[in-house]
Amino acid sequence: MLQQQGVLVKVPASTANLGPGFDSLGMALSLHLWVGMKPAERTQVRLHGPELTGIPTDETNLIVQIAKRVFDEAGVPIIPLDVDVYSEIPLTRGLGSSASAIVGALVAANALIGHPLSQQRLFDMATTIERHPDNVGASLYGGIIVAAWDGQQANAIRVEPHKALGTVVAIPRFHLETKAARHVLPRQVSMADAVYNISRSSLLVAALCTGDFAQLSFAMKDKLHQPYRAPLIPGMSKLLEEAVQHGAYGAALSGAGPTLIAFTNKEQEPLALVMFMRETLVQHGVEADVFQLLPCSEGALCLNAAAEEIKSVIPSTYKEHG
């Protein structure tokens, strides 16, 4: 049944890889994107906030295009849409901005037509679009996601983040396209490097499941992608190597970067770590926003609200940008 009043969906950001878990580990974070979607006489997209500058507002908009895929998959007629989008998630910084948009579009369009598609089907569709399951799985289900994809079906197990787990993120004020960050990766790796990552990724999952965070400084090390991406982010190598000396359990490149993320005890003040991360990047000529960010247990949520109620979550300073 078509929801004439529309739907409002809230989707968390995500961090992927967590070091060694390349394209297989992800965690939802407490920054969000909201999508309001309702039927209309003609398609229009309103964007709110500076993070969405330059995004198309016509039929070519990613959210509109993915909504059409949902309608087609569900066997219902494609309809024009009125879409509002507000996001706290910075674009092309390694915090899953594209994954959150994909998941938001899928969940909103599915809710708009009465939820005909299962969560698993939405996950499969999201992974096919994104080409890896870690970010989309975290945004869809929340928490920590351990996932695999065979090109057609995505499988995932969700782990609830430990109540004491926190993070500090350093978000450089420059963009790094995922395509560029993948271009620097080798086409083949040695058996030794493969075993190095498999062992640490397995240990990392076990540590996160049990709360044995003392293992993270060892378990978050990687040889498959971070060494090759380090030249793209000045100061990254020093930050990842020395973060544990300033209070971090371990540190990693968030997704394809340039954001860097350190795992912490959220019950302890991370001032020394924040200062270290900021100063390390400044010493290498990189300005960055550095702050605490909590894991998010809640995945994509269809709120009990009409599409127009997105106005309640948009800061007043951004409302005129629609």
Q: What labels would you give this structure?
A:
322 residues, Ribosomal Protein S5, domain 2, Alpha-Beta Plaits, four-stranded antiparallel β-sheet, 11 strands
3D structure, described in words:
This protein is an alpha+beta fold and 322 residues long. Helix content is 32%, strand content 24%. The protein is built from ten helices and eleven strands. The strands form two sheets. Strands 1, 2, 3, 4, 5, 6 and 11 form a seven-stranded mixed beta sheet that branches. A four-stranded antiparallel beta sheet has the order 8-9-7-10. Helix 1 crosses helix 2 (97-112), helix 2 (97-112) crosses helix 4 (133-141) and helix 3 packs antiparallel against helix 4 (133-141). The protein starts with 6 loop residues before the first strand and ends in a 19-residue tail after the last strand.
Question: What is the class of the largest domain in the CATH system?
Answer: Alpha Beta
Q: What do we call the CATH topology of the largest domain? A: Ribosomal Protein S5, domain 2
Mind describing the biggest β-sheet? 7 strands, mixed
SSE ordering: EEEHEHHHEEEHHHHHEEHEE
In angstroms, what separates the terminal alpha carbons? 29 Å
The fraction of residues assigned to DSSP E strands is: 15-25%
Return the average pLDDT rounded to an integer: 94
Domains, number: 2
Work out the helix count: 10
How many β-strand stretches?
Answer: 11
Estimated structural class: alpha+beta
Give the overall shape: globular
Radius of gyration: 19 Å
Poorly predicted regions: none
